[in-house]
Design a protein that fits this description.
The chain is α/β, with parallel strands linked by helices and 412 residues long. Helix content is 35%, strand content 19%. Strands 1, 2, 5, 6, 7, 8, 9, 10, 11, 13, 15 and 16 form a twelve-stranded mixed beta sheet that branches. Strands 3-4 form a two-stranded antiparallel sheet.
């Protein structure tokens, strides 16, 4: 057997977030810490269909943020990604005009691509004919364009790709970005995830599966991870971007290191297209691989930022996994009680939150957790944030197709 590689902690030097909890990292972090309920409501784009509740971002002004001349050729998922990337790069103190672009990569997670563009142009085709379909349709809807546009904006000429592992996409992207740094292919990687698919066909599809919460009358209370009365997830849009650097690169320029991505593991359930393995056996492989990659034992984990979607099956399977592998010592939380479930961007949003938790020693509570499911035997943080030193944290993500991805984040 080949000897294990030495642990490698990629430096997190910048964070950018555009979410339903707030536009900008500070705003989102404040609301996630307050956990005053889901940032959900009736979505104008979903008017006329039964499942019209979601977490969208009404105060994101793409034209003001990115420029009116630019946004006409960008699907909203790319708009969100570019805004988050701009904040992350500013937070990292990097000047793209002075870097060696060949040493800078971009890796984003995205679940379904430009669905709003797709649906809009399909209606145009039906109602007005093929000559009215946008010539930008394909570049706007294909799933890789969010990463492509970031590269074009900042001259990042290194490896550039999008990971599509359903709701694990953002976590997969961060793990892949770390590998680019560890291999020596890049000095800097702009990574994270983006999603904007609050569109009638996508949301109706989830509704027909029975995956969504039916609490239309009380949307702010609809997403309730680990609660005994949870009944489904609340869909969301959003983006989060992390700037990862090789530690020596960050130190050489005197960068602030906010946290480190020290481990990554991935696996498949090989069980069902949509339902998780009830015991979390596939996810256990990813969790153990991530800890092994970080050179850490199971007793080192202080905190778990759970996938915690608020669906009955997912939350119970994840709770069983955590209890079996890590016991009941780590403090567990799910931010989806506030943000909703941003699908391909969820893991990136949660990686950003986990980095802030490690940096600041503040574990946000799980919103809407009024009565813990008695089958969930974990220390789930509820009602109020908890101040505690967090040296090692785990961020879990699981997706349709049995996709599992886990990150280990450690102190700066």
């Amino acid at each position: 057997m080949a000897p294990a590689a030495a642990p490698f902690g990629a430096a997190v030097t910048g964070i950018g977030m555009v979410t339903s909890a707030g536009v900008g990292t500070d705003a989102a972090w404040r609301r996630i810490r307050a956990a005053e309920g889901t940032a959900a409501g009736r979505v104008p784009a979903l008017a006329g269909i039964p499942a019209d509740v979601g977490c969208w971002i009404p105060d994101f002004d793409a034209a003001a943020t990115l420029g009116r001349r630019k946004i006409w050729r960008l699907d909203r998922s790319s708009q969100l990604a570019l805004a988050a990337a701009a904040e992350a790069l500013a937070d990292a103190g990097l000047d793209p005009s002075s870097w060696d672009g060949a040493r800078v990569g971009v890796v984003l997670g995205n679940g379904v691509g430009g669905t709003a563009t797709w649906e809009k142009n399909y209606e145009v085709l039906r109602e007005r004919g093929p000559e009215k379909v946008s010539a930008m349709l394909i570049p706007m809807l294909i799933v890789n364009m969010s990463a492509g546009h970031i590269a074009m904006e900042y001259g990042a000429r290194g490896p550039n790709f999008v990971t599509a592992t359903a709701c694990a996409s953002g976590t997969t992207a961060v793990g892949a970005a770390r590998e680019l740094l560890r291999s020596g292919a890049c000095d800097v990687v702009i990574t994270g995830g983006t999603e904007s698919c609050l569109t009638p066909s996508i949301i109706t599809g989830f509704q027909q599966m029975g995956a969504l919460s039916n609490r239309r009358a009380e949307p702010a209370a609809a997403s309730r991870p680990f609660d005994a009365d949870r009944d489904g997830f609340v869909p969301a849009e959003g983006a989060a971007v992390l700037v990862l650097e090789r530690p020596e690169t960050a130190r050489a320029r005197g960068a602030r290191i906010r946290a480190r991505v020290s481990g990554y593991g991935a696996s498949a359930d090989a069980y069902n297209a949509t339902a998780p393995d009830p015991e979390g056996l596939g996810a256990e492989l990813a969790l153990r691989a991530a800890l092994r990659d970080a050179g850490l034992g199971t007793d080192a984990v202080d905190h778990v930022n759970a996938h915690g979607t608020s669906t009955p099956l997912n939350d119970l399977a994840e709770a069983r996994l955590i209890r079996r592998v890590l016991g009941d010592r780590p403090a567990v939380t799910s931010v989806k009680g506030v943000t909703g479930h941003a699908l391909g961007a969820a893991g990136a949003i949660e990686a950003a939150v986990t980095a802030l938790t490690v940096e600041q020693g503040v574990i946000p509570p799980t919103a809407n957790l009024d009565s813990l499911d008695p089958r969930i035997e974990l220390d789930v943080v509820a009602k109020a944030e908890r101040s505690a030193p967090v040296e090692v944290a785990v961020s879990n993500s699981f997706g349709f197709g049995g996709q599992n991805a886990v990150l280990v984040l450690t102190g700066p």
